[in-house]
Amino acid sequence: MLKILFLALMSGGIPVAVAMAGSALIYIWLSGNLPPFVVVHRMIGGIDSFPLLAVPFFILAGNLMNNAGITNRIYNYALALVGWLKGGLGHVNVVGSVVFAGMSGTAIADAAGLGTIEIKAMKDHGYSTEFAVGVTAASATLGPIIPPSLPFVIYGMMANVSVGALFLAGILPGLGMAILMMLTVAYFAHRNGWGADVRFDRRRVARALLETAVVIGWPLLLWALITQLGAPPRTTVLAGIVGLFALDRWLRFEAVLPIMTPVLLIGGMTTGVFTPTEGAIAACLWAMVLGFVWYRTLSFKRFIKVCLDTVETTSTVLFIVAAASIFGWMLTATGVTTAISQWVLAFTKEPWVFLLLANLLMLFVGCFLEPTAAITILVPILVPIAQQLGIDLVHFGLVMVLNLMIGLLHPPMGMVLFVLARVAGLSVERTTMAIIPWLVPLLIALVIITYWPQAVLWLPKQFY
């Protein structure tokens, strides 16, 4: 009955969060077994969680980066690094999304922020609008895979899994997905006879490679000092940050400091300098230092607007979490989750079969529900089954988030689809057709991540 009420409210055009809370309230009222006020208690309990404190700070950090002119720096860095390849701006699109993913944590922010710059540039260079939209949509899915990631925070809280381990688990799969997307760009460039979009300049490429080397080598140097020489973590990290700013001032890098955001987060968490929640605050402070002090591209007036936008987005996310928590609790209390678990385990006890069924379910659900709501509903149903079958919950979390990100590209509820349709000025139908070819690399990545857990778990096992 609970599921019928939820589907009835959804079909009536009621927002997902309201439909979840409303169906639970109506069910309790009709059954008469519990006081209706229990809905309020369970909703408050659903968001009364320390890890969820990271949500508003990660949203604020992404908004600050997006409004402080950082996106232009990322674009210029990616253009210098790969713009000289055939189909150059397609590669720039992917590399830019890899970098921006380390700051925003959401696919929608990537599509709306960096996507606006990339689509316009690609159209100006003669690329079709459909190709520009397709590659932008595919690369936007990297936002929640490469840390930091809001869906990982929600999943970690719901499944009682280390958020730091989830962040580490997303790095290698995210880079692998980027490689698959760049291979797809190369295929289209070869088929259509596209050339480079900028002239090959040794100095410019060398400078971009130097920036890349600093991003990779600087944290490795600090890690070696801490682990091999026994240097105090906090002092070493602080000295490393000061040295990084001095190096940036000397060499005038384009985007080293913004790219360092996920490096600082992961490094701080793995060395014990701060927790994932404290890391979200550190990311905000880092963004404010870059915007207000270093680049001086962020004004106080814009900062106030960013804060108000963050409050609005946070309220939406937490209301969805609260509504989904009561709905998920009701599914458990009414025995729905137990019945589903028994049915699945009676059908198969093979982990690979369960993962196949779970992927199909999550892809379907992702087309209709916002990722936060989908995670809070699916975790109580699927995670107990995964545990019984011996599937690592960090691995399963990455599979779940990637499925739901692919769902964002589909009608009828795909938010990335609608954002890009508005940005590019295309109809939803044409945008959908433009995205379809890009589902191939995403689904290939999904299969690899699902059935090759070592690619996901290797990094977390080094630190956790």
What keyword list fits this structure?
0% strand, 25 helices, single chain, globular, 464 residues, mainly alpha
Write a structural description.
- This protein has 25 helices and no strands.
- The protein has 464 residues and is mainly α.
- The chain has one domain.
- The model has no long low-confidence stretch (mean pLDDT 83).
In short:
The chain has 464 residues and is mainly α.
Describe how the helices and strands are arranged:
Elements: H1 2-11, H2 16-31, H3 38-47, H4 54-67, H5 70-82, H6 88-104, H7 107-112, H8 114-124, H9 129-140, H10 150-159, H11 163-169, H12 171-192, H13 202-227, H14 233-251, H15 256-270, H16 276-294, H17 300-333, H18 336-347, H19 351-366, H20 371-388, H21 393-407, H22 415-424, H23 428-435, H24 439-451, H25 453-463
Helix pairs in contact: 1-2, 2-17, 3-17, 4-16, 4-17, 5-6, 5-13, 6-8, 6-9, 6-12, 6-15, 8-9, 9-22, 9-23, 10-20, 10-21, 11-25, 12-24, 13-14, 13-15, 15-16, 17-20, 18-20, 19-20, 19-21, 20-21, 21-24, 22-23
